Amino acid sequence: MEEFIGGLWHRFITRAATRSYPQAAVRLEDIERTAGILFRALGGDAGLRVAPAAEVEHGARRGWLARIAHAGEKVAQSARDSETLRLPAEIALFPERSLNRDLYLWLIAQGAALPADGLTADNWIAANQEASAKTLAAFPGFASRYRRLVAAVLAERPNPARLPADEAAAEQAIRQALAEPGSVASLPAARKPPTPVALWLYPAPVAIDRRESPATPTPAENREGAGKSTDATDRRRQAQREDMPDGSNGLNLPFRAESLLSFADYVKVNRGHDDDADDNPARAAADMDRISVAQDGTDTASKVRFDLDLPSAAQDDRPLASGILLPEWDWKKQVLKRDVCSLTVLDPRDAPPIALPSRLVRPARRLRHQLEALTPARRWLKNQPDGPELDIDACVRAFADRRTGHSVGASGGYLSCERRERDLCCLVLADLSLSTDTWVSDEQRVIDVIRDSLWLFSEALGATGDPFGLYGFSSRKREHIRFHRIKDFDEPTDDRIRGRIGALKPGFYTRMGAAIRYSTQILAKRPESMRLLMILSDGKPNDVDHYEGRYGIEDTRMSLNAARQQGVRPFCVTIDKEGQGYLPHLFGPAGYTILRNPAELPARLPLLYAQLTGA
Predict the structure, then answer these.
(1) What is the pLDDT of residue 307?
(2) Cα distances (angstroms) measured from residue 120 to each of 81, 107, 191, 504
């Protein structure tokens, strides 16, 4: 009974203290496509990605009801740095849905107008006002929206008359800055920070790395395959890197011996962390203000995928001496570093020949019939100067022209048989990273979908006669890039190739730029005039070192540009639900497709190939 009454009280006081309108909420994922297009249309950096912002404690004054309910302590503050534009995962600030959507659009415009190097604690007030004035001057259509938003925001902000003098002065300055952007140079000092301004962006959080030693591979990285994983990337979270506690002072509690009244038993406990795995680690992490990331050298039964504000691992750019050496683009220095990546080509092992799985026989037969139209066929050319047979129609026309007195030119009167060959080849590059171990249904993981796709693709292309190769890749830092050779162009599709596909397993990470560069080298040796590079991926480029975020995206973009310069046509097929945020920057508006249902990939891949090759 006590818990029931407590639950009722908690729900009542929370609803009374929370000033939001869930019925009018707009989620970032609902306008994700619009956000990316608008940001770039307004002059924003095309390489930036739009991502949910982390909730942080703001420290501003709250009403007594909010303090009782412990509500309103955190807020998702919009921010921008050199890699990401962070927006709230959901906006429910106003009772009208149109106003909440307009607030998203304004924050996008504000982010596009801010300086490229981001905001700092010293300049963010002036920079936001400057960006507002710049946006209103360049795009007058935003003026009416901005006035409505300012009026709605001011109605939700605290009344200066009810605040202490110092906080009231800061609040009045904020109101003036919103009404007249550029009129306030800085905020007056106050004991508490002001209530967050929904129309402004804030300095991006500083990534913290407190480790004394570099990261070492975990057991999950040293083996292929693991337990089920959980996706918790719905919003960005505050995080920091830490060294794993040594456990030497796990439970040292100071106390006064004379205050110890009695004891029943003594248990020697020295525990630096909880030994029992949490049943729902994603839910536990959601309750943390800041997530500390460390490596303890052990493995867990499950994995959780987070979007964290973490600094990149330390990097070095020493040239390597072994393996197939490849360059890498450093977008911060704007230079192509030579021989900094080492790629190793791996031939399949433990891959006995197998037949096509029975569940795929029928789909494979259907796809072969659909792609038979691409098979080179014989074609008779009429009115030729020579050939094995007479062109009866041409002969009749010539005879009729002579009898009617018309002049007859030196046109041909023969039929010539010509075989039209398709002058193209295709290389399929599959992402075999650790993320492919994620379950997409109760029966299949991503890697299972990729296997089925490669099986059906190889069976379907057998009907066209087009040369094709199958390869996969994964990586663990720049020194260990693994390039799996599944099928070379000159190998026939048989049980041996099917066995190699069946033996594919999840690898490590996704250093995509190096894999694309080596695939381009393979295609450059092909004699065909059209060379297609189809990339199968489930996420954006990343690795365990500095190869993440903007760095990985820009390196991949440069590798794709180099491929196009050598006559290779790249095309990406992805199941990444966030792909709309970065794929246009990499492949262009027509160079990719996103499959919302991963199970569609096996059947869609051969049909996409037919569309791309002009069927």
Answers:
(1) 59
(2) 10, 17, 20, 47
The tens digit of pLDDT for each residue in 174-200 reads 999 999 999 998 888 888 889 899 999
Question: Which three-class secondary structure state does DSSP give residue 445?
Answer: strand
Residue-wise pLDDT for 458-488, tens only, equals 998 877 888 999 999 999 999 999 999 999 9
Cα–Cα distance list, 444 to 161, 311, 407, 440, 538 (Å): 61, 34, 73, 6, 14
Q: Which residue has the higher pLDDT, 375 or 451?
A: 451
Q: pLDDT at residue 252 above 80?
A: no
Across-strand partners of 57?
74
Q: Are 53 and 85 in contact (CB under 8 A)?
A: no
Closest C-alpha among 259, 398, 340, 369 to residue 551: 340
* Encoded tokens for 418: 């010509």
Intra-chain end-to-end CA distance of the chain, in Å = 70
The pLDDT of residue 270 is above 60: no
Cβ atoms of residues 470 and 487 within 8 Å? yes
Beta-bridge partners for 326: 341
CA atoms within 13 A on the CB side of 454: 32
> Residue 224 pLDDT more than 90?
no
Tens digits of residue pLDDT in 78-88: 888 877 888 99
344/473 Cα distance (integer angstroms): 10
Contact 200, 107 (CB under 8 A): no
Picking from 578, 349, 580, the residue whose alpha carbon sits closest to that of residue 482 is 349
Neighbours of 81 (CB within 10 A): 20
List, as one string, the DSSP characters of 375-442. Answer: S--EEEEEEESS-SEE-HHHHHHHHHHHHTT----S---EEEEEE----EEEEEEEE--GGGGSBSSS
Report phi then psi at 274, rounded to 5. -75, 125
Closest to 157 (Cα-Cα) out of 136, 142, 178: 178
Output the pLDDT for position 533. 96
SS (H, E, C) 562-598: HHHHCCEEEEEEECCCCHHHCHHHHHCCCCEEECCCH
Alpha-carbon distance 310 to 230, whole Å? 19
